[in-house]
């Protein structure tokens, strides 16, 4: 990694990149936006990345507010998500970026808005993905649950969108909302949360959220079993069915998604076991492309994000390796048994419905 060089030159590089975002062609905006995001990831969390966020945020938001061409908007959304993810130091800064993204997802009319614009499916999917990626960072902050009713309700309508990428992005966002308990009114009343309102309004909010849960579960069930019949669009159909089956397993049985990626050597593996981690993994994999594995191996930021464990078996004796692998086989068998139990539970639930 060129961390030392970047650290010494980042202010000069950032000025040039921001100038390209402001005045460049569509291709220049795409390349400069990616470069700004890569700059933040390379430097990692700290004052330099915070400066990058503060410097680039206004120009990226102007691109979103101007509703320029789709490619520019997608580039700006991805960059805004990354620099806020790395550089934001408090909830207020994160909320500014979340609001800018939400204004693309669900633009509203107003005195200063004029005609409401509707984002094209690729822009809408990118905006939801960026918004969800940033939402993974608010888990430790207490928020007003009442303020999430409208966004969750709107996202649930997108499960019926014609575009599959939009449906999948909305599904991931809603899965995260479930994981963060944003649909669970009483879980926040038990802690420091504030649902806002009196007993009557709280009861109404509870009933509204229960209705939303039922609607989302029903739509997820339909999408997990969508048929690819003659004339149907089969692009990403398998991915959609797998995603919504995971969402159903989480909502019904509390089963968290699990995924692993081999990093290097024989046993260095990156593992995730929650929706927040999976969403972060998928977003950063897409943003970094072929450079993802290199960053995971050498970048302290990504190693901290995913709590990467270094393989220690290379230094073990032959006997100790056998013991380690035996334990690993036991873990794999337990996981398979758990998957079988889930499959049986789904089968039994289907039989009861019939």
Automatic annotation (TrEMBL):
<dbReference type="InterPro" id="IPR007701">
    <property type="entry name" value="Interferon-rel_develop_reg_N"/>
</dbReference>
<dbReference type="InterPro" id="IPR039777">
    <property type="entry name" value="IFRD"/>
</dbReference>
<dbReference type="InterPro" id="IPR016024">
    <property type="entry name" value="ARM-type_fold"/>
</dbReference>
<dbReference type="Pfam" id="PF05004">
    <property type="entry name" value="IFRD"/>
</dbReference>
<protein>
    <recommendedName>
        <fullName>Interferon-related developmental regulator N-terminal domain-containing protein</fullName>
    </recommendedName>
</protein>
<comment type="similarity">
    <text>Belongs to the IFRD family.</text>
</comment>
<feature type="domain" description="Interferon-related developmental regulator N-terminal">
    <location>
        <begin position="2"/>
        <end position="251"/>
    </location>
</feature>
């Amino acid at each position: 990694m060129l961390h030392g060089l970047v650290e010494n030159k980042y202010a000069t590089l950032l000025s040039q990149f921001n100038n390209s975002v402001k005045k460049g062609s569509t291709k220049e905006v795409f390349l400069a936006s990616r470069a700004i995001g890569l700059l933040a990831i390379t430097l990692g969390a700290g004052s330099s990345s915070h400066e990058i966020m503060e410097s680039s945020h206004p120009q990226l938001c102007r691109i979103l507010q101007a509703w320029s061409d789709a490619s520019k908007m997608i580039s700006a959304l991805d960059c805004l998500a990354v620099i806020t993810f790395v550089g934001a130091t408090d909830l207020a800064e994160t909320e500014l970026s979340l609001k800018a993204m939400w204004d693309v997802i669900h633009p509203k009319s107003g005195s200063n808005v004029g005609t409401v614009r509707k984002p094209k499916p690729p822009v809408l999917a990118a905006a939801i993905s960026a918004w969800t990626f940033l939402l993974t960072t608010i888990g430790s902050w207490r928020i007003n649950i009442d303020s999430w009713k409208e966004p969750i309700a709107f996202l649930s309508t997108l499960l019926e969108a014609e575009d599959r990428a939009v449906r999948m992005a909305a599904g991931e966002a809603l899965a995260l909302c479930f994981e963060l308990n944003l649909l669970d009114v009483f879980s926040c009343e038990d802690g420091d949360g504030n649902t806002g309102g009196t007993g009557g309004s709280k009861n109404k909010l509870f009933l509204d959220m229960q209705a939303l849960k039922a609607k989302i579960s029903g739509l997820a069930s339909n999408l997990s079993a969508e048929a690819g019949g003659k004339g149907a669009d089969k692009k990403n159909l398998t991915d959609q069915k797998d995603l919504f089956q995971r969402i159903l397993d989480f909502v019904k049985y509390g089963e968290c998604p699990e995924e692993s990626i081999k990093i290097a050597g024989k046993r260095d593996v990156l593992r995730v076991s929650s929706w927040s981690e999976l969403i972060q993994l998928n977003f950063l994999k897409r943003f970094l492309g072929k450079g993802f594995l290199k960053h995971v191996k050498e970048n302290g930021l990504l190693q901290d994000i995913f709590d990467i464990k270094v393989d220690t078996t290379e230094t073990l004796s032959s006997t100790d390796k056998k013991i380690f692998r035996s334990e690993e086989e036991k873990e794999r068998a337990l996981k398979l048994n758990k998957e079988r139990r889930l499959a049986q539970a789904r089968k039994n639930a289907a039989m009861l419905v019939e």
